[in-house]
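re: ur question from yesterday

yeah so i grabbed the chain u mentioned. its 460 aa long if i counted rite. heres the sequnce exactly as i have it in my notes:
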Amino acid sequence: MTAGTIAAIATAIVPQQGSVGIVRVAGAESWAIARQIFQTPGQQAWESHRVVYGMVMDPGTDKVVDEALLILMQAPRTFTREDVVEFHCHGGMMVVQQVLQLCLQRGARLAQPGEFTMRAFLNGRIDLTQAESGADLVGAQSPQAAQMALAGVRGKLAEPIRSLRTQCLDVLAEVEARIDFADDLPPLDEAGVALELRGIGEAIAQILATADRGELLRSGIKVAIVGRPNVGKSSLLNACSRSDRAIVTDLPGTTRDVVEARLVVGGIPVQVLDTAGIRETEDVVERIGVARSRDAASEADLVILAIDAAAGWTAGDEEIYRQAQGQPLIVVINKVDLLDGERDEALPERVTGGAIALVKTAAAKNQGIDQLEAAILTAATRNQIQATDMDLAINQRQAAALIRAQGALERVVETVANQLPLDFWTIDLRDAVYALGEITGEEVTESVLGRIFSRFCIGK
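ran it thru and got these structure tokens back, copy pasting raw so excuse formatting
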């Protein structure tokens, strides 16, 4: 996977809309390829970490493909620690595609997903946690998620993992030394070893506590707004998203399909789905919309049940509530601005007691939306262990490795308590060392690398 010179488009390309498009080439032949297709006027020096101006030319036809800038970088002072060139072209689909094709015709091959980052890892430029954080930074959906990913890129996660692995290696070295040179060394402090391993396990538990929150910041939650027709579901969506994503009328059944909006609440990406009003109907199209509403609600992480304040709790609300049982639920009493008095008493006690929150809104007038967002945030973060350092947050792969390391250390402590021979200690200590090394990439198989980097974009 890492042989030869590779090339790829390194920027998102939007047809007829991009201002700048970058084609990246990395490998031993990158400079030679650039010299074949890039002509610079005047006496511009081709030196490392220098920008030169010129024309991208097709050597076969002597046709000018683009007026561009070329950034020259020589190893090892590059991201991949190889020679690298970047063509900064005019954006748009056709120009960058033509430049990429010229590079491929002159000896480069198309990069595989994540291959630039993989080369940086294999060449010792970054570790595996930094590589994964780089991908998280590209895909961040909120400022908080971006900050978390940036901390990972800067090595904040790798540091404590390496420290814990070093401690395990030190213990392993002490144990193996007693096995090989038992007559020349003082007896091992078994109680001290067990105490140290427990401390390492506690440190691992603290890092593991960041997993849920980290996943929440990366992936966010899906929220479905359900309810009878004309209770104000579309108005709630529009108010939350601060836009007119959904059509709002006084006619029941206006929303026929699921309408989506994306927002950020307390740093957490939230996908809000406005669903068709749920009711029995003979309209074929509306029936399809109702079926999709039920599907969206069943797949959501959180359900918002909207009811009409003026109508109170109806048999239709009861049926929708019954279908939402077993899912986190927020009840929204909408259109409270149309009431002369309070109508909370119309809600069954089991509903008010079973819901995460009860929020009053007048969505058409943007009233109560802040309270609704606060309730969504509470629902999203409930049952989660709040980490003290939110710059440090692990992903699922890293969490799995930490759990294996934690289990191995617990087995060592049990082995010490049972006074088993030192040879038994080393088995689980090596497992802990290996599991921790998998996180940073010091212990990793080619198949694991393939799975990790296959999720990257091609130009990354």
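noticed a couple things. Residues 245-257, 384-389 have pLDDT under 50 and may be disordered. also Residues 158-180 form the longest helix (23 residues).
anyway ttyl
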